[in-house]
Specification:
The protein has 287 residues and is an alpha/beta fold. It is 38% helix and 13% strand. It folds into two domains: 149 residues, 3-Layer(aba) Sandwich (Rossmann fold); 106 residues, Adenine-specific Methyltransferase, domain 2 (Orthogonal Bundle), CATH 1.10.1020. It has eleven helices and seven strands. α3 packs across α6 and α8 packs parallel to α10. The chain is globular, with a radius of gyration of 18 Å. The N and C termini lie close together (7 Å). Bound molecules: S-adenosylmethionine. The site of S-adenosylmethionine has 20 residues, from loops.
Length: 287
Amino acid sequence: MRFSTPLRYPGGKGRLARYVSDLIEINNLTGGGYAEPFCGGAGIALSLLIAEKVSDIYLNDIDRSVYAFWYAVVEHNEELCRRIRETPVTLETWHAQKSVQKDKATADLLDLAFSTFFLNRTNRSGILNAGVIGGQDQTGKWKIGARYDKKALIERIDLIRFYAKNIHVSNDDVGMFIGSRLPEISPKCLVYFDPPYFRKADRLYTNHFSSNDHAQLAGIIQDSVTQPWIVSYDNTPEIAELYNGRRQEAFPLSYSASAYSIGSELMIFKDGIDLPPTIYATRSMVV
Ligand SMILES: C[S@@+](CC[C@H](N)C(=O)[O-])C[C@H]1O[C@@H](n2cnc3c(N)ncnc32)[C@H](O)[C@@H]1O
């Protein structure tokens, strides 16, 4: 089984799908739920659902653009695919979609979903605020459509349609998600927190965290999440300290977002979880 999320995501964790699948197996969580309070591209969640390793996935993101995309995939799948099929991939469309993001707080969710998808696939590194691939004059080596294989992308979105009733999408701040949504979800559910990085996150995401936010989050997760949970971060002493006393494992996950990459990541585990022998990142998901 191999599934790729339709969204490109800087720092996307899709390559940990196999590892997380094994973690679920070892902890007798197969057939249960899987929640990502910071879902972004949701690569792991979708791989697990489509491989039928878990029965339901809970995708939450505070970014209304990201939320709109997942909402439309679940609630308006055919219409979203139609727009992708029929909209030409041109600079004119790019400018029109850019202007939708300017009013993202009030934009119609389906319009916002299409705009998010279009810009994610035509901007450098998939970053919504970045420039278009190939530049405004389209003289770069790669052109606007380099990452926009319509047929393949529509196939990915269309496949998710069959699982729509098992995908639960929300647009909460993580604190609200932990306080109000997680208590309603079965105890047989792995919760994977992948917050914005401690360092340099402001370059990658629209919503970044202050040190205080990281500290608060560490407190809430450790004090109040009753389901089994894991957290991943960039490997920094500050984060290791915030989760002092929990089991922690450093691992490599290379990726590139423009000109830099972050080498070492840190995974932190709730007490009592059984762990696979090491953390592995693979290109494909084999369950
Ligand atoms: C590191 S990315 C997640 C990447 C994701 N795990 C993947 O594999 O694609 C962090 C995400 O958290 C979201 N986010 C930032 N602050 C948040 C908050 N307070 N509550 C919920 N989501 C938040 C961002 O919009 C971003 O999509």
